[in-house]
Amino acid sequence: MNDEQYMEIAIDQAKKAEQIGEVPIGAIIVYKHKVIATAFNLRESLQTTASHAELIAIDKANEVIGSWRLEGCTLYVTLEPCPMCAGAILQSRIPRVVFGAYDPKAGCVGSMMNLLEDDRFNHRAEVQGGILEDACGDMLTNFFRDLREKRKKK
């Protein structure tokens, strides 16, 4: 499979989030060409700050690998990771991150800054952004537009 095909799986996860009223962000982790973890945002459902798709996927992958080190893995996520998630990616030693839509307000792997390729850290990750960017971005745009419309009607 290629990056676009893996991103389609992350998009499917994002759609699951949207179906339950969560911000539609999905993530998967791939190891040796196999999807070992899937996740989507659960922040509204769980009411916990760290319930981002990336962090949930990292926790699941840790269980599968049996280690906190996720060397050899690639993380696919539909939205550019925030600073919290970028920090977790660094700490988990994921060597490659592929994301869909850029996040100019909170993105920390290219938009506002790039924590993952900062040579001041002892670990860095290769970053590839903009994979299926329109599909990922449109899903978020439509979600927030619909949310605003619903709030206007109340």
TrEMBL record:
Signal peptide positions on this chain: none
Cofactor binding note from Swiss-Prot or TrEMBL: Binds 1 zinc ion per subunit.
Gene3D superfamilies: Cytidine Deaminase, domain 2
Domain CMP/dCMP-type deaminase: 1-110
Residues at the active site: 54
Residues annotated as binding Zn(2+): 52, 82, 85
Annotated SUPFAM superfamilies: Cytidine deaminase-like
GO BP terms: tRNA wobble adenosine to inosine editing
Keyword Metal-binding annotated: yes
Superkingdom of the organism of origin: Bacteria
GO MF annotation list: tRNA-specific adenosine-34 deaminase activity; zinc ion binding
Database matches in CDD domains: nucleoside_deaminase
Record's catalysed reaction(s): adenosine(34) in tRNA + H2O + H(+) = inosine(34) in tRNA + NH4(+)
UniProt keyword terms in alphabetical order: Hydrolase, Metal-binding, tRNA processing, Zinc
EC number in record: 3.5.4.33
Cofactor(s) the record lists: Zn(2+)
Subunit structure: Homodimer.
PANTHER family registered for this protein in UniProt: CYTOSINE DEAMINASE FAMILY MEMBER, TRNA-SPECIFIC ADENOSINE DEAMINASE
HAMAP family, alphabetized: tRNA_aden_deaminase (MF_00972)
NCBIfam families listed in its UniProt record: PRK10860.1
Family stated for the protein in its record: Belongs to the cytidine and deoxycytidylate deaminase family. ADAT2 subfamily.
Purpose of the protein: Catalyzes the deamination of adenosine to inosine at the wobble position 34 of tRNA(Arg2).
Entry protein name: tRNA-specific adenosine deaminase
Biological classification of the source: Bacteria, Bacillati, Bacillota, Bacilli, Bacillales
